[in-house]
Specification:
With about 475 residues, the protein is α/β, with parallel strands linked by helices. Helices cover about 35% and strands about 15% of the residues.
């Protein structure tokens, strides 16, 4: 019994010793032509356990390389203000301050998206309506109301074409104008009135840095959002002072271009409950909207859908109450919420906090996680990763949510390894001296993850005939 009790630990110890040497040594020279000496493998040799040895060496090298990446002197104060967790099918490969409560930047959109998908359902659509009196002989007696339903991507073709990354997903306001014409409308005596009453009228989160507004990081919020509520975008973006009125004015122009006579000026107000529904257009599904939000890191979509969460539970469509729904929903998923603090859905606010443990848990355990992973941008291919990882082994293999604010970088997602595995990971870094270092770091970390396990294949470690 004594021999059997100590045989397994002795074997594992041998594996660990050899693994440590393999993990830390430099690659052997390939210049010698001398044939290798024949190996005689003892019964307890680690060479008789090649898969175990390969895994141990791979794990050790991964930890060494990730430790080195996060200790890079270039990172400055960020070396002590970061977290990173890496899982391999539920097996924790690496963990560094997983519960540190850090600025997540746009990685927060993963939490927002998880709650939106769970509460609204991935197949739900948001409807924009045109309401008014039914036309008699083509004439509408009184106004037509353009009623916002919270679609964050309602817009025109010229606005969609202005984006660098194409094609830009949008719900066509032109198509809605065509449907009004198809409904028989030829003259509107009371003008077009924009209705944004589905949500409150708070345009921006009060604690946001003013430059987010002045630099057009996000447009003013409204239940009737058209073209992100910008009235111009060349050479610079100009936000609408009154989004509902601006949307009504644009819709007026579209109707007139289609031969509809519209009297009067655009205005805003609530559509009468008894008014008839003359035309509608639906958004993409919520699953597709969340995918667009993650892929393009769309702040406007995030904040609009947060307001919709509040509206669906009977509220007035506010950010504060919508974020309460997000937290409540995440709690219902039994996720580790310690260290979470949120005031918006986009991650723009600098008081937002999250942990790597939570972000990874959402990606691995949220009920609609398939929709989350489907929406992640692919390295060197699309979305916010289109410009990154070119020439890297991670190109096309890594898909992840990016995050970036001044001094902050984040990357949470999946890495398809060169050996055919899949690693889930979350990285947050705060206190970067230069924002470019965020891209440098997550490209470095991404490459390390994709190459895992960076060791010979198990078959190459085995002794022939053993």
């Amino acid at each position: 019994m004594g021999l059997r009790r100590h045989a397994l630990p002795a074997g594992l110890a041998a594996v660990a010793l050899v693994a440590g040497a393999l993990a830390l040594r430099a690659p052997a020279s390939h210049g010698s032509t001398r044939p290798p000496a024949a190996l005689a493998a003892p019964v307890l040799s680690p060479r008789r356990a090649p898969e175990t040895l390969s895994r141990v060496v791979g794990d050790l090298r991964l930890r060494r390389d990730l430790d080195a990446a996060l200790a890079d002197p270039q990172l400055g104060a960020a070396r002590s203000a970061n977290c990173l967790v890496v899982d391999d099918g539920g097996r924790r490969l690496y963990e560094r301050t997983p519960d540190a409560s850090l600025l997540p930047a746009s990685n927060l959109k993963l939490l927002t998206g998880a709650a939106i998908l769970d509460r609204l359902g991935p197949g739900t659509r948001l409807r924009t309506e045109v309401r008014g009196a039914r036309p008699a002989g083509g004439n509408v007696d009184g106004p037509l109301w353009l009623v916002g339903g919270g679609d964050p991507l309602l817009g025109t073709a010229d606005f969609a074409a202005s984006f660098e990354r194409q094609p830009r997903q949008f719900t066509s306001l032109e198509a809605l104008a065509d449907r009004v014409v198809k409904a028989g409308v030829r003259h509107v005596s009371g003008g077009i009135v924009g209705d944004e009453t589905r949500y409150d009228r708070e345009r921006y989160v009060p604690t946001w840095i003013p430059s987010y507004v002045s630099d057009s990081e996000i447009g003013p919020a409204s239940a009737l959002t058209v073209n992100d509520n910008f009235v111009a975008w060349h050479p610079r973006h100009i936000a609408a002072a009154a989004p509902a009125t601006a949307a009504a004015a644009l819709f007026t122009a579209l109707l007139r271009a289609r031969g509809v006579d519209v009297d009067g000026s655009a205005a805003e107000g609530a559509a009468p409950p008894a008014s008839a529904r003359l035309a509608t257009i639906d958004s993409a599904t919520v699953g597709e909207l969340v995918g667009e939000m993650l892929r393009e890191s769309d702040n406007q979509t995030a904040e609009m859908l947060v307001k919709e969460l509040d509206r669906r539970r009977g509220g007035r469509g506010s950010t504060v109450n919508g974020m309460a729904v997000v937290r409540s929903d995440l709690a219902s998923m039994d996720l580790p919420l310690a260290g979470l603090a949120t005031v918006d859905g986009s991650g723009l606010d600098r008081s937002d906090r999250a942990t790597c443990r939570l972000l990874l848990s959402v990606l691995e355990h949220a009920p609609e996680r398939a929709w989350l992973t489907r929406g992640l941008p692919v390295a060197a291919h699309d979305g916010t990763l289109a410009r990154h990882f070119h020439g890297s082994v991670a190109a096309g293999r890594l898909r992840a949510k990016t995050g970036s604010l001044k001094g902050v970088a984040g990357l949470t997602g999946l890495a398809a390894t060169v050996r055919g595995g899949t690693l889930a990971f979350s990285l947050l870094v705060n206190g970067l001296p230069h924002d470019e270092l965020g891209v440098y770091l997550y490209e470095k970390v991404g490459g390390i993850l994709v190459r895992y396990p960076d060791v010979p294949k198990p078959a190459q470690l085995a002794v022939p005939g053993t």
